[in-house]
Amino acid sequence: MNDAIYIIAFIGAFLAIIITFFIITMLRYHRRYVKLQKDRVMNEIAVLENERKRMAYDLHDGLGPMLSSIKLNINSIETNTEEDKAIISKASSHIDDTIQNMRAISYNLLPVTLERKGLFDALREFIDYSSAKSKLPINCFLNTR
Predict the structure, then answer these.
(1) How much is the pTM?
(2) Rg, C-alpha atoms of the chain
(3) Do residue 65 and residue 96 come from a single domain?
């Protein structure tokens, strides 16, 4: 009878060790899987942010000066008729609108405040800008700690 109790206790302890080892292995695997998923998501975010930065800089540094140059060239055209002057003025106005839209797109892709000062200042600036444009006042209390 004593031998049977020892055998059952030994088998129970052996099964407990196997189950514990299995649970620990599964927890380690799960932690490793979660870490890999987190790293993958962070890498995707970094790639998207870098692409947004590149697009914002390309718009601002490439397209902006080109549009300004086109505007200068159009405004330097000598015309004699009022109709031609009106057409040039209208084209210049369209270029100004395009430059403003391009700056807005560039800013929306990568706000300068976000790049230089961080998320909290960028949110404050966005809230102030949105509040000024709408009739609805927006209040936000951010804890910067």
Answers:
(1) 0.55
(2) 32
(3) yes
